[in-house]
Every structure is written in C-alpha cells, then in structure tokens.
C-alpha cells in the first residue's frame, strides 16, 4: 500500500485528528513520503544532500529565516574555521581550491549556500518545531510546527532526522543579579577586555611543527595511542606557549584529545589571544559571584567595574524541549544516549546527526550512514509499491 494512502486512511479513524480538522482553521496536515529533517544547519544540509544523491526526497524544517542561522546570525565577523578546511567539508562537495586553509565565516556561509543550491535543498523557513512524537497506532512520526504568524502545521512521516545539533540554544550561566577570540577582537580595537575563566582549559597553538595541530593529531593517532599523542601535544604546547597556569589558565587533568572524546570539551586553538594575556592587555578573572549595578563581584572577593558584559558561554542542545522520545536522547543534555559512533540511529525510524562532539567531520560520517540506512527502506518500499501496482493491473486486465 502507498504510504500516503496508509497515513490518510488511518487518520480518517483518528478522533483527535478529525476533531482538529473540524475546529482549527489555521491548522493543516502534510504527509511526507520521505524523511523529515529538523534543522537547516550543516547537519541538516549534509543529510538532505546524501539522501538526494540516493534518490530519496526529504523535507527540511528550519525555525530561522535562512540556512546555517547560527553562523549567519549569531557569530562575530572575524570568525574563521578553527580546523583546516579538509576536515570541515560536507559530503560530496569540497571547498573551492582558492579558499584559504582556514576559511572565514562568510566563505563558509557561501560554501553552505552553494551546497544547498547544488542539491536543490529548499528548507521550509520560519517553522519552529514545537513537538515531535511517534504515533504507535499510526506507525508514523507526528511533527508539529508553528509559523511566524502562529499558524500550526503537522507533518506526518515515517522517518525523522534530528539535525538541530549541539548548538541550538544559548547557555546563560546562573549569576546573582541578573571567548577568547572576542577578547582578541576587543583588544585589537583598543578596548580593555577582561576574560572570565570559570573552568580548566587546554590552550594549544593553532599550528605545530609546520602542520595544523588538528591535522597533526589525526596523523599521529593512526599509529599512537591517544594518551601518548596528548602528552606530545602538551609538551610542544609548553615549549611554544609556556606555562599557561601562570596566567590564570589552568589545564585539565585529562589530555586535550581524551577530554574531547569523553566530554566534547574542545581545546582552544590560540590565534593571538595568549600574547595579549601575557602582555596584560587582556586580564584573566575568576568566576563571577554576583552582578551589581555598575560592577561585577568575583568569587575571590574582588570587585571591578565594566561597561558591558559579553556572555561567550556557548550553546547546548534543545532536543528535550520538543522531542517526546526518551529512549534515544538523554533528557539531561539532549544528546544521544549511545556514544559515537553508535548514536546516529534509534527505534521507529528516528535518526540523529550533528551530535558526535566531533565537529563537521562527525556530522559528515553520520549523514552518510543515515542516508544509506534510509535508502534501504526506501528501495524496499518501492519494490512493494511496484509489485502491488502490477498485481492490481493484472487483476484489472484479466477477463
């Protein structure tokens, strides 16, 4: 049976569905034959492109007005990719040859927009998913979205791809009274910034021994255990940067790569900030205890006045706020419960992309796996539809 006919047939016997159809004029239901992808960032685009290459259509929902909204609307202008471009490419299409090793923010956005055009990916913008839940009676996912004018839409699909990623919602720390590169920007424009460091942090040179630090690490990991590579990175960092503890930047007990694997906490690749910290142009401060009217009190008891406070405290997953599913995703942090490389697939046709804690490289790996998996189901259903159609035609033609 055609999946769309199956959905509509079951909906006709769903009292809640029929009640909503009769009472809500601004509500509509859309049956999606292929997968529904939530999020039009790099993760969603990569998955849609891989599916498109395999002949599987998809629908992409995006709460903002553009693709890669975090990059386009929430980042500072001087931002560059921290890793060499070869580690940040999406599947099937590389960066232009004339792009530098570390593309700028605008170059990366241009790359993503061209990527979407190449694969004819046209997300449905300004649709915020408010709820997604598997309907066991229907055998499909029901995904509800709200438009900018409050209009409601329910999408019904067999496969749901969660591509909202690790950075969907801003982290606002609890402070009574309510980024290192940002500090460098302020310093370069004659400001007097102070950097609040609340936790231990690994600061590494962006380039080591003539190679990118990340590229060197990946090369060494082919032959050496992770702890040995971590020791080598820290030794070289000490010779190049000195003892960062002297400047208020204490290192974690675990090495940078091991810490990244276990917690997702990324080491800071220094692009000039440390030199300004050493010279005193950037002041390092401990955690904030409370905010006052025109001043900040720190946990060490000291107080200082500031013209502005910039929260460079990062982002987090927002999956628990809208996905009503507790088997695949953790309610605590919004990440798949199963660690990489096994967190990309759940039960009942749900998938996750962009939650590997391994950047765009991990995103590409998951996007390929998801497309390959859905393709198998898609082809299987196509065979059943073809067989059903042939059988019906034979019955009609027989005397």
UniProtKB/TrEMBL annotation:
Signal peptide: none annotated. InterPro entries: Auxin_biosynth/cation_transpt, FAD/NAD-bd_sf. The keyword Ribosomal protein does not apply. Its EC number is 1.14.13.168. It holds the Pfam family Pyr_redox_3. One of its GO terms (biological process) is auxin biosynthetic process. It comes from the Eukaryota. GO terms for molecular function: flavin adenine dinucleotide binding; indole-3-pyruvate monooxygenase activity. The keyword NADP applies. Its cofactor is FAD. Keywords: Auxin biosynthesis, FAD, Flavoprotein, Monooxygenase, NADP, Oxidoreductase. It catalyses: indole-3-pyruvate + NADPH + O2 + H(+) = (indol-3-yl)acetate + CO2 + NADP(+) + H2O. Pathway: Plant hormone metabolism; auxin biosynthesis. Transmembrane segments: none annotated. Belongs to the FMO family. This is indole-3-pyruvate monooxygenase. It comes from Hibiscus syriacus (Rose of Sharon).
């Amino acid at each position: 049976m055609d999946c769309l006919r199956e959905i509509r047939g079951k909906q006709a016997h769903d009292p809640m569905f029929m009640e909503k159809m009769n009472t809500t004029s601004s509500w509509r239901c859309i049956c999606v034959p292929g997968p529904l992808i939530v999020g039009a960032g790099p993760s969603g685009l990569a998955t849609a492109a891989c599916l498109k290459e395999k002949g599987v259509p998809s629908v992409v929902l995006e709460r903002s007005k553009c693709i890669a909204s975090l990059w386009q609307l929430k980042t500072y202008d001087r931002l560059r990719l921290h890793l060499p471009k070869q580690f940040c490419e999406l599947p099937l299409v590389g960066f232009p040859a004339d792009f530098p090793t570390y593309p700028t923010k605008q170059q990366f956005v241009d790359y993503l927009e061209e990527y979407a055009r190449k694969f004819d990916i046209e997300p449905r913008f300004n649709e915020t998913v408010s709820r997604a839940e598997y309907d066991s009676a229907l055998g499909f996912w029901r995904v509800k979205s709200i438009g900018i004018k409050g209009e409601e839409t329910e999408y019904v699909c067999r496969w749901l791809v969660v591509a909202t990623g690790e950075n969907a919602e801003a982290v606002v720390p609890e402070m009574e009274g309510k980024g290192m590169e940002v500090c460098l920007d302020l310093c370069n424009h004659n400001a007097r910034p102070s950097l609040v460091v609340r936790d231990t942090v690994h600061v590494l040179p962006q380039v080591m021994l003539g190679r990118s630090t990340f590229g060197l690490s990946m090369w060494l990991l082919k032959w050496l255990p992770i702890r040995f590579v971590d020791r080598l990175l820290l030794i070289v960092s000490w010779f190049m940067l000195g003892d960062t503890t002297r400047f208020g930047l204490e290192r974690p007990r675990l090495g940078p790569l091991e810490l990244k694997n276990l917690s997702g906490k990324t080491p800071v690749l220094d692009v000039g900030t440390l030199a300004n910290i050493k010279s005193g142009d950037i002041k390092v401060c401990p955690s904030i205890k409370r905010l006052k009217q025109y001043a900040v009190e720190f946990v060490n008891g000291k107080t200082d006045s500031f013209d502005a406070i910039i929260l460079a405290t990062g982002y987090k997953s927002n999956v628990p706020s809208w996905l009503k599913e507790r088997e695949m995703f953790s309610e605590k942090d919004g990440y798949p419960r199963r660690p990489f490389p096994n967190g990309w697939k759940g039960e009942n046709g749900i998938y996750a992309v962009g939650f590997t804690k391994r950047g765009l490289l991990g995103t590409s790996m998951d996007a390929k796996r998801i497309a390959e998996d859905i393709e198998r189901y898609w082809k299987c259903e196509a065979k059943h539809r073809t067989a059903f159609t042939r059988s019906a035609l034979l019955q009609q033609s027989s005397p």
